[in-house]
Protein: Transmembrane protein
Amino acid sequence: MYNYVFSRCAKYAWLASLSLLLCACSPRFDWREVTGSEQPYQVLMPAKPASMSRVVQLAGQQLSMHMLAAEAGQISFAVGSVQVADPGQAGLVAKAMREGMLANLRAKPEQIQTLANGNIIASGSSPQGQPLKMAARFIIDGKWVYQLVAIGPEQALQDEVADNFLQSFKVNKSK
Structure:
């Protein structure tokens, strides 16, 4: 009787261990190529994204911002895009986007680093005071201004994940 109970418990323990192992092996990020519906770009997102639009005030202009966002592994990934009437204003709009993101993160100047590839890495905190890390990239292409942001807890946002997202962005010139 003892051997039967022991072997049955061992069998269930083995099945439970196997289940945990399979869960641990499931991918945190299910990368997929996504194309902007109205905006001419493509990017890799780690999960199925949601899209939304709203009017924002940037550099003294009212602009319609289109957002594509997904969350995976405690990290939020987003692409924001606006089209300006005058391409000469695109730089001011990109600067306003950058300043707004850094202000939302409550990042101090010493917590902000601009890398050689143009990516920005910053540390700050959520409104509740939780430490956050942000990786961002701001791109100007003619009348289009793009904001790519990955933000999450410091330990969750690994450099290779942020790079995979930020460097995957491509402007689609055929639209």
Notes: The CA atoms of residues 27 and 141 lie 33 Å apart.
